[in-house]
Amino acid sequence: MSLTSIVDQLKQLSVDTRVHFVIQSLNGFEVNEQQLKQDSLEICNILKKDLKFLKDKSILKHDYIVLLTIPEILTSEEMSFQDVELFGLDHKFKIFETCEHKNNIINLFKIE
After folding, report:
1. With CB atoms 3.0 to 4.6 Å apart as the test, which of 17, 25, 80, 103 could cross-link to 13 if both were Cys?
2. How many alpha carbons fall within 13 Å on the CB side of residue 97?
3. Smallest Cα–Cα separation from 91: which of 55, 54, 63?
4. Residue 24 neighbours by CB under 8 Å, 6+ apart
């Protein structure tokens, strides 16, 4: 799969669909865009060019998530999904796309 196919799928979602963009390091810590190297920043720019992501960090059932995992081990104040109760019997993850782009991993999934 490709980064373009993820962007295309996101463009097909309805306007009222909640979509989050999360950036994390290989060890699962949340990463700010200011910390990204050129290749990862390029991916952010491609995704944000035509797509709108929620600024709200609360992730709910039926939300879509674009997860960018950068090829570095970094630490920060919190893990990517530290405050989100996603695990358990009530939640499943449906993965729509996974791709690798310049050593970064991009996943598109939905909380069900």
Report:
1. 17
2. 20
3. 63
4. 30, 31, 67, 68, 69, 70, 80
The pLDDT, as a whole number, for residue 65 is: 94
What stretch of H or E contains 56? none
pTM for this structure?
A: 0.90
Domain ranges of the chain: 3-111
Tokens of 74: 């970094």
Q: What is the pLDDT of residues 54-80, one digit of tens each?
A: 987 788 888 999 999 999 999 888 888
Q: Answer left, alpha or beta for residue 90, where phi above 0 means left and psi between -120 and 50 means alpha.
A: alpha
DSSP H/E element including 10? helix 3-12
